[in-house]
Amino acid sequence: MITKRNSTQSLFFDLECIAPDLLNNDSFYSRMHAYGDVFLKDEDYAPLYSPDTGRPGIPPSIIAGVLILQRNDEVSDYEAIEKLKYDLRWKYALNLPLDYEGFDRTVLVKFRSKLIAAGLERVSFDNLMKLAVEAKILSPENIQLADTSHILGAAAVQDTYQLIRSAILGALKQVDVKPANLEKYREGKADIDWEDRCQRAGHLKELVADAREVLNAAEDTEAKDHEAVKLLRDILSQDINDKDEIIKGTAKDRIISTNDTEMRHGRKSSSKRFDGHKAQIAEDLESELITNVDVIPGNAHDSTGSVELMTEQEDILGGRPRTLMGDGAYGTADNRADMEEAGIEIISKVRDDSSPDKYSKSDFKINLEQNEVTCPAGHITTKYSYGKDNKKRRVRIYKFKAGLCNECPHKDKCTKSGKGKAITLNYHEAKLQKARQDQQSDEFKALYPRRSTIERKVAEMMHRHGCRQARWIGRVKTKLQLLLAAAAVNFKRLGKIAPQVLVPAG
Ligand code: SF4
User: Fold this and answer.
1) What are the Cα distances from residue 321, in Å, to 26, 117, 311?
2) What's the 409 CA to ligand 1 centre distance in angstroms?
3) Do 276 and 333 fall within a single domain?
4) 263: pLDDT strictly greater than 60
């Protein structure tokens, strides 16, 4: 049964009367005190409670308020509960009496799980969005920005030995078999000399043999399709070859932790790696309010999910956002095509892959109407054949004659092939050509530098509100973390740019 706050209940303690000097009216806590009930309403959480059974409990608006304050102050569940009990600012922000004792931290854990199970993880964020839409601060016509940043996963990365051992233990809960080394696995990391290659190889053979025994036992039973058994099968196939040795190199989409199977190896740059997920963040260009967030795999392309990032806002904005501006990662031909199909214009630069010492495709003039390609030396070819791109789609490959290229003074800069230079067109080449043309316009040149505004917002989310580190396991919970942080960030922003929006109607 839901317990609602009694708004007429007089507080045992009024900080404004006793210690007004302690209050900063511009602070996050004072704004929460004054306007928190505008976006944290008990009735929004009614689906989490039985309408007529259960004991009276804690009003959900208080728990939701703690989750927002937690993201604002970037504290753990334990610290949040301590603050709720002892920090005057938190009591003031949530309009709680001085002697409010708080609750157990498991309440936060259960509340978050219930939010996700009921699909209510966006409530506080969406409530603030609705206020901004009603005040005409946000609309589908506004230009939005998008950017990604890495999130470090909450679980520890495991090596192949740890992955197999942990997956065996997980799968054994579903299968009736007792591998020879079961007790050793339960004790933790094997007690061998890890510097010794032979001992490592011997241990691996034991592990793989036991893993195969577990998988064989699962065959022809219902356990075969259980997630834990599937995980063991996936780990073996991604890390172990036919000779029961560790595969050299990294398998595509490799699982790196049995505790968070959604974490992936990702790259911040060509030389810097991370382990975890990526945050997708969209922002309104003018108001700088966050309009949506998502969590995509750490190894996904930065444009992944950018269409959904926009279309998810449709109901709240009262229409689909018309324009998205992002860096070159959003300007790939495929993303342009996907966006166009969704009715969203993309403003982004086509990435220039040219370098001073090597010609690239962008140094060749491609004339699709005339069906010809001109090389940097001024030679024209109209000869082409067909090949397949990385998505197995049919694309044209234009070829320059071997004799011409082999005698060309630019050859070293142009091609290593002795068979003549080949230029492969993109499946959406026409879109790339148009984008290259558009980015030369004065309008584009004036607007595009404003894209960097979102980098400040991403930095605020990552560094000020702790989104660089996932607090919880899995992408769904990490997205909840981002939504709560985004609600805190937008609440601050609305208080700054349009405080009148936060005043309750009437
Ligand atoms: S190597 Fe061939 S394609 Fe390249 S610039 Fe010379 S002639 Fe043109």
Assistant:
1) 32, 28, 7
2) 8
3) yes
4) yes
Beta strands in 390-437 (DSSP E): 394-399, 422-424
Regarding whether 116 and 48 lie in a shared domain, the answer is yes
Q: How far, in Å, is the centroid of ligand 1 from the Cα of 370?
A: 20
User: Which residue range(s) make up the domain with 235?
Assistant: 160-255
Say if residue 104 is in the same domain as residue 22.
yes
**What is the rounded average pLDDT of the residues 26-36?**
90
The Å distance, Cα 437 to ligand 1 centre, comes to 24
CB of 227 within 8 A of CB of 239?
no
Are 207 and 301 within one domain? no
Domain check: are 93 and 222 in the same one?
Answer: no
Q: Is the CB of 405 under 6 A from ligand 1?
A: yes
Dig out the tokens for 443 from the structure.
């309008």
- Determine the Cα–Cα distance for residues 110 and 57; give it in Å rounded to an integer: 13
CB of 200 within 6 A of ligand 1: the answer is no
**pLDDT score, position 235:** 97
Query: Mutual orientation of helices 60-73 and 77-86 as an angle, nearest 10°?
Result: 110
Answer yes or no: is 494 within a domain. Answer: no
User: Whose C-alpha lies nearest to ligand 1, atom 4?
Assistant: 414
Please check whether residue 26 lies inside any domain of the structure: yes
Work out how many domains the chain is built from and give that number.
4
Q: Which of 384, 402, 428 is the last residue of a domain?
A: 428
pTM for this predicted structure: 0.91
Q: Are residues 307 and 367 in the same domain?
A: no
Give the pLDDT score at 110: 96
- The answer on 319 and 184 residing in a single domain is no
- Pocket flag, ligand 1, residue 64 (CB < 6 Å): no
The answer to whether residue 125 sits within a structural domain is no
- 373 Cβ inside 6 Å of ligand 1: no
State how far the Cα of 14 lies from the Cα of 20, in Å rounded to an integer. Answer: 9
What local confidence, expressed as pLDDT, does residue 271 receive?
A: 85
Helix (H) or strand (E) holding 441: none
298-351 pLDDT, tens digit each: 999 999 999 999 999 999 999 999 999 999 999 999 999 999 999 999 999 998
- Shared domain for 345 and 448, answered yes or no, is yes
Q: Which protein residue has the closest C-alpha to ligand 1 atom 7? A: 405
CATH value at residue 458 = 3.30.420.10
Among 379, 398, 401, 406, residue to substitute to test ligand 1 (most atoms within 8 Å of Cβ)? 379
Q: Does any domain span residue 99?
A: yes
Residues 188-203: pLDDT tens digits? 888 899 999 999 999 9
Rounded CA-CA distance 9/190 in Å is: 60
Place of tokens 């990435």: 351
